[in-house]
Design a protein that fits this description.
7-stranded parallel β-sheet; globular; alpha/beta; about 240 residues; Rossmann fold
């Protein structure tokens, strides 16, 4: 897909990986809908950075745990730019949930934000893409969805389900729409990690470094413009750690 002059909706685009993806798309000539929930100043900063690259941007707040707000997000995106050519589901809920303390409410929130919200967006925009004859969707999953983390079970399960959703949507929306997933590994470690934990991760990673949001953004770009013959695939971006 030629990205110049197209429009993308990136969820969680105010910070971290989502911001890197939004700016990478703008650098390729795309207008961007910058979704956020609680980071309004950061979202505005992302939008301003997009505009400095010569592209249009709009910020839209939505709680992905609430279906009505997800629907409003999609509606606002389409109303603003007319069409959405690319959807990147990057926003995610992430926090520690030890087995002894995890609750049903935790499970509900993780599945709503990390799975159901992305599904509702992908269905609404994906059907419009299919009707128009083309479009691409990229879901940002996590290596935890393939190798669950003990103290993050709801998060891990939600990301594993997102991978399955990716494959199902790829079948349902074919041949007009390609749907793929990017699975980051160690990118932007949690703030509570110390130097010892960081060094242990680097030692266990064949490429001997922590990942960067740009590593994820470049992979998204490849799936969008590098090939139109890839769908239903899961691209792991973890420096090789998953093979150790």
């Amino acid at each position: 897909m030629e990205l110049l002059g197209r429009t993308a909706l990136v969820t969680g685009a105010a910070k971290r990986v989502g911001r890197a993806i939004a700016l990478a798309l703008a650098d390729r000539g795309m207008d961007v809908v910058v979704h956020y929930k609680g980071s309004a100043p950061e979202a505005r900063a992302t939008a301003e950075a997009v505009e400095r690259l010569g592209r249009r941007a709009v910020t839209v707040r939505a709680d992905l745990a609430k279906p009505e707000e997800v629907e409003a997000l999609a509606e606002r995106a389409v109303e603003t730019f007319g069409t959405i050519d690319v959807l990147v589901n990057s926003a995610a809920l992430f926090y520690r949930t030890p087995l002894e303390k995890v609750t049903g409410q935790d499970w509900d929130q993780f599945l709503r934000v990390n799975l159901i919200g992305p599904f509702l967006l992908a269905r609404r925009l994906g059907l419009l893409m299919r009707q128009r004859g083309e479009g691409k969707i990229v879901n940002i999953a996590d290596i935890a969805g393939m190798r669950p983390w003990t103290d993050f079970l709801p998060y891990s399960v939600s990301k594993g389900a997102l991978i399955t959703l990716t494959q199902g949507l790829a079948k349902a929306l074919a041949p007009e729409v390609q749907v793929n997933a990017v699975v980051p590994g160690s990118v932007l470690l949690p703030e509570e990690y110390g130097e010892r934990e960081r060094e242990a991760i680097v030692r266990a990673t064949p490429l001997k470094r922590i990942g960067d949001p740009l590593d994820v953004a470049k992979t998204v770009l490849f799936l969008l413009e590098g090939s139109d013959f890839i769908t239903g695939q899961v691209v792991v971006v973890d420096g090789g750690r998953s093979i150790v």
